[in-house]
Amino acid sequence: MRKTIAILLAVIGTWAPVSPARGEPAIRVAATLSSFADLVKQIGGDRVEVSTIAPPRFNPHFIEPRPSDVLKVKKADLLVHGGLDLEAWRGPLLDAAGNPDLFPGGKGELDLSRGIPLLEVPDRQLSRLDGDIHLFGNPHYWTSPENGRIMARAIAGKLSEIDPTHAEEYRKRLADFLTRLDGKIAEWKQLSSSVRGKEVIGYHNEWPYLMEFVGVKLEQFLEPKPGIPPSPKHLGFLENYMKERGIKVIIQPTYFPKSSSEVLARRTGATVVILCQSVKELPEASDYIAFVDYNVRQLVRALEGK
Ligand SMILES: [Zn+2]
Description:
This protein is α/β, with parallel strands linked by helices. The protein has 2 domains: 2-185, Nitrogenase molybdenum iron protein domain (Rossmann fold, 3-Layer(aba) Sandwich), CATH 3.40.50; 194-303, Nitrogenase molybdenum iron protein domain (Rossmann fold, 3-Layer(aba) Sandwich). It has helices at 2-13, 34-44, 67-75, 90-97, 145-162, 167-192, 208-214, 232-245, 259-268, 288-303, and strands spanning 27-31, 48-52, 78-81, 109-111, 199-202, 217-221, 249-252, 271-274. A 4-stranded parallel β-sheet has the order 2-1-3-4, sandwiched between helices. A 4-stranded parallel β-sheet has the order 6-5-7-8, with helices on both faces. It is globular and about 60 Å long. Residues 61, 133-134, 140, 204, 206, 226 line the site of zinc ion.
């Protein structure tokens, strides 16, 4: 381990990322999630060198940053993160990296939750003792393309602030991204119009923003509370709930075990559908727009019984 760190330090010490086209030093960005990293790349183009901390096939709440992640943050000009209590590991990682610009309120910090109309904000203060890990509202907001717009604008604003010389370039890339995204938003609204008002069951409560966008109801989860695994008693409750309402679709990302969902699906004649929580979680979700596209199409197809 010590040897690995020494090698990494040696490599990073001599490494200065460069915009390939112009030979200018690029802005080093560390993004906590692959979805944020993709948006930074779309807006920053070859002006940014982006690294991701949480691998896309892992639960974003609980990853264990490696020594190489500490180095990424140490060397970064900008940290783009989800805010709230999404990344339980963000505080310890920042402490380990000790880069003061990236601490909350620092000039190289971008908290993407700011400016997002949050859902499920509790009306009283919660603590972990309540058995919940969404203490400040639901933190999975990037799954809705309406919020993709807000995040892209925030990223363009921050890049222009750090690198004002190229502000015009970021503005153009933002405009191009928003034009493409808005075109797709209209298409996704049209596509999902046939399934509005239907209901699905989730594993973890990480889809309220996407469900609001497509107009699909999602109120019950295999986890009795966010972060608490399903129990036999709770599965029994869900079985009755699904049968009473004729619910035929259970959604979950790749990183939760499928066994409980499959048991419930067998008992109720439902289908388990894998949606992506992160860009690049599956090959089909290759960038932000492809990620939303994959999720909307999978969901609509399953709810139409195809
Ligand atoms: Zn969560």
